[in-house]
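Shipment paperwork, digital attachment
Item: protein structure file
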Amino acid sequence: MLSRRLLRVKVAKSLYAHLKSGSDNLKASEKNLVESIDKAYDLYFQMMSFVVEVAKYAESRIEWAKQKKLPTYEDLNPNRRFVDNAVIQLIANSDSINDVLAARRLSWVTAPDAAKEVYGRLVESDFYKRYMSAPIVTFTDDRKFVEEFYAWLEQDEALADIVNEMSLLWADDYGFALYLAIRTVQHLKRSHTEVKVLPKFKSDDDLEFAKTLFIKSLVNYDNNQEIVDKYSKNWDVERVVFMDSLIISIAIVELKHFESIPVKVTLDEWIDIAKYYSSPTSSNFVNGVLDKIVADFTADGIINKSGRGLL
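Attachment content:
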């Protein structure tokens, strides 16, 4: 399921795109935000299907080898452990996955060499060789192999680049989609006849959270920039990075308008996001400015939190 962290990143990117484009169409930008969230969930299914694509390519290699004029013993008696992996077969035959792939028109047809290239790297990996040479494997071993496959893909920059080229909206979603795939595989059992896919959201109000955060951040952007300017004056910086001020502006909205979200959660989330999406020194700057804002807003009664465990 899509985390609040990912939703916050989507809001920040959508706000950045709206401001940089000079657009005045709030509805269109909100629609683009929702589409980017939907596409992130699509990528989860896209990656779930990828292990099947690689296995299909491996099987095509086996069939090709059998058709040689002078096939070897190994060609005629191949090790089919990977292509017959029980978990991969369960994914391949899953209606819960295939129905979404069909409905959302998701496939690897625009990246026909992706499976071939990954397979070439896969067969050289230690975990693949260990799996293929084991004297015997169980369903648990099959599941562990698929988990390792998705974990291994996290380091595959070439595939990540292919995914990003397939959709601009998938930029930075690759690792998160693989994380969801791993979580899905971890819960599979031999008795299962269907893959239980993860829901899009953990909570029914997650989408509303993202849309409200985006709209309020956009509507209040100019006012919040004045607050950022006020609290960043004493910082020894020549120029406040645009992304830093945007992040602080969104955090201000979350602090003021989302009473059920603890202050600490808001601070931790946006400081971490600043580490990855702004400059190398951004987290310290964002942390320092937000600390001052929280202190003054709390004293002035601007921040009002309700519920158990809220700061």
